[in-house]
Structures
1.
Amino acid sequence: MRDDESDITLILTHNTMDIEYIKQHRRLTLEYGRGETYRTNNPTLYGHSTYGRSSVLAGRPRRVFLESWDDLDTARAELKAAKIRYVDLCDTRGSTHIPVDVITAGLPDEDI
């Protein structure tokens, strides 16, 4: 990819990553996919931030799915090629999953 190209989308082995969107997140983690209703063995890149002022969840932690891969070596190689900095939790099997009941704790029932 040339430096003067305006499109920052990087086409890699099997994914197209929107580099600008990914870099908008303050913190990135690579971990095995896990959420409220799913769990996978696929390495998954998540972005971390807080919900904005316009959200009923304003100020609470937010985790956003960004990308996933079929294998860990490919994920690490593609992130390195794209010069994306992240915390790698795959070797420890760590997770940053936040249960929904933790995020919504203290909200009135009509807001949930």
2.
Amino acid sequence: MIVAGYANRDRIKLKIASVYVPVPPKAAQADLATRRREHALGLAAPWVLSALPECLRQTFEGAGSRAYVSSLLPSGYAIQPAGTQLQFGDCSIVAREKDVLVRRGQDRFYVPAPAQLFKKGSSIALMHEAGARVTLRIYEPATSKL
């Protein structure tokens, strides 16, 4: 039977039709919103500041060798020593010995080592190294929409 079906496969026609099946609506779960954020979010990535547009707005990104990226850093930016804490909206940014910690509510984000934080006026610059590739990102405080 299988051989006959295979041998005559060009002559066999299958018709598949769609069928509507009504499904009753599912009732909303009342406690879903309260259960949604039971645990704090944690993330380690060199772009975490770019993922927080309510706090900072990325204005520049450059990548390449360390010498090239260092030349892209505008003059006047000062490296922030370990322990420096900066506040942008509800985001708290802490420069640590080799990495950068970002707190927003219960959530904690990390820019992994090696990372350096620079500041000039109200803007900050973040330099992150991954092997021979260095990335520089410059941020301005987010503007509130009124």
3.
Amino acid sequence: MKLKFFIIALAALSFFTACNSSNQDTEIVIVDTFTFEGPLYEGSNPSQLVFPVDLNKILGDKFHEGMKVTDATLSSASISAVDSGNLSGITSMVLSVASDNPELKMLSLGVVNPVKPNSNSAEIKPSTEANAGEYFREKQYYIVLDVGLNKDIEESFSLKGEIKFKLKHN
């Protein structure tokens, strides 16, 4: 009888442990504006956005104490001109994530090269190898958009980004 109880208890414990440790998927969408302050020069010109990591706010009802993000991959990213402008003069874009932690190097999430001339928006091609999970375990992270310009420009401009991440968390 004791052996039966022990086996049932062990099976129940294994079941609950397996249910607790399974990864869940959540897609988050970040919509924000990257501002590029002129004068800007031919070649690489970065702009960054800062995001505090608050898993309770990010995951909502799926949040529980002690959880962590294990994987974060870029699902898609669309970059568009603000105020009905176009992407004239932009030849390429690289979307990256960075952190204040010196052990975490900037990670390229995706790229578009070339940008179609005179288009109003561009779709970033996500990297199949980039995993930004570690950045979601920091206090904050930075999304960096680096645009390549084909010439110097004096004016400032802004680009709207809609960035989707697929998060795996326990």
4.
Amino acid sequence: METQFNFQIKNRKDKRDWELIEVSYQIYCERNTAIRYAKRLSKIFHSEIRMTQGAEPLKTSGTYIYEQAEPLKIKNYGKLVQ
């Protein structure tokens, strides 16, 4: 069942309350898909995401997601043998 999910994006240095942050993105999907989107948005914008469900995003409690993108680590796997 698809429902409306709202996403607010807040930089970690931003000290404003969540009620003052505007809704940046709305989507109709399942909850698992919405969580994947929130994690992806958090990594892209290096910010905390508040995900709420329903038509009134500023009046409901939300799920807070902050994903840090880890840098790629180069490993020495040895030489390619032919």
